[in-house]
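Can anyone check this?
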Amino acid sequence: MLSRVLPKINPLPEKIKEQLRHVDDFYVCSHFTEDMVGNTVVKIGDDVYYRFMDYMYLPQPPESLSVERVIQICDLRLEYFDDLVNRQLNDKVVANLVKCVVPGFANVSTVKALDFGCGSGLSTHLLKKYMPCLDITGADISERAILESRKQGLVVEQTVPEKPLPFSDETFDVIFAVFVMHFRIGMETLAELRRVLQPYGKLVFNVYQRDIEAVLQQLQEVGFASIRSHSLTGTNADHKIVICSNIPVIEDVLM
């Protein structure tokens, strides 16, 4: 039997390695310029690290991190927010997510929405920018993110992974998850998102840096009746937009 040939993992270039700050189990590059963006998988010393965003390196792929580590990363992102967060990309992603749901609410004056994993509140502001009719509530697992969002006057609830969401059944017309699904979202939480979504509502999110097929399989297993995805143009090839609903959409029925 032929053995599988694994791709070679190259060391992080010295000019980048010299700029690294060691924070807990992660590395953050302190020189935030395009020529300091390394490969997606690199070796730092003898260990393999995975690039997250452009300037952060993790000892595991994002989807395999524990809840505690995810919170650490979210808090690091807040600490280095202006340098780590690509506002132009966030704007592009949110604009595309909103485009997926706007036609379904063309004649609705107020749309109740959940910004799942709202972080700093940037996604909430962008969602309101592109869809002013949203009556939006944020949710996050990071206490620091919640405090930051509430300082801006946003309505935010704290969530606990694999515990019931603090919302009644069928509360929301639409649920957005912006730069969230590259982490591991458990089946219990996905089922909770389905529970708090109106039957005619939509869950829409972006996925990158992970196997989208695994995510789609989970969504199917928790009972979403319609699951569609397409590539986000103008970004890398594995950046996808996913739209789910609790009932089949017309296009699905006709197929």
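Reply from J.R.: I decoded it. Residues 87-254 form a domain with the Rossmann fold fold (CATH 3.40.50.150).
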